[in-house]
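Could you help me review a protein record that somebody else here produced? What it holds is a sequence and that sequence's fold in C-alpha cell form. I have pasted the whole thing underneath without changing anything:
=====
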Amino acid sequence: MSRHIDTRNHLLDTGSQIILGRGFSAVGLAEILGTAEVPKGSFYHYFASKEAFGVAMLQRYFAEYLALLRQRLTREEGTAHERLLGYYQQWVANHQADCSGGGCLAVKLSGEVADLSEPMREALAEGMHGVCGLIADCIIQGQQEGSITTAQAAPELAASLYSLWVGSALLSKVQRSLLPLQLALQQTRLLLQAP
C-alpha cells in the first residue's frame, strides 16, 4: 500500500472516530490533524475541503458497511428471515455495547449534515439507498422461500424497516435507552412474519 493511501486512510480513520463521538460541525480540522499527527498541507493534498473530507468519509463508511451487510444477508446458513432478524438483533447488541453513544456514522450525521451540505446529503442518500437495496434483496429471497410475508413489496418493506431502525437509533440516543431498539425489533418480527 502506498504512503498516499496510508495517509489518506489514516486521516479518514481518525476523523471518523472523532466525528462519531461529537458530530461533524463540532470538530475542526485542527483537531483531526492534531490527533492524526498530519500537517495541514497534507490534508489539502488529499481533500479539497472539510466538506470533501466528509463526503469521502461517508463514501468509505458505506462501502465497508455494504460489504459486511452483503456478506451477512447472503450467506448460506438459515433462512432469509433468520438472517434479516440476526442483522437487526445485531443493531441492538451494537448499541448496548456502545455506551459512548457513538454508534452508526450514518445515523449520527443524517440529521446534522442533511441541511448543511448537499454533497454530504447525497453521499448519505446513496449509501442508505444501497442498504435498503440489500435488505430488499434479502426480503425477496425470503418471500420466494416462504419465510417472509408477501403482503408488501420488498422495496417498500425494506424502506419501512430502514426508517424504523434509523428513527429508533436516534430515539435510543436521545433517551439513552435500548427500549426504542427493542420495540423496533418486536415490530420488525411482526412486519416480516410469514403468513
Notes: The chain is about 75% helix and 0% strand. The chain has a mean pLDDT of 90. Residues 67 and 105 are 16 Å apart (CA to CA).
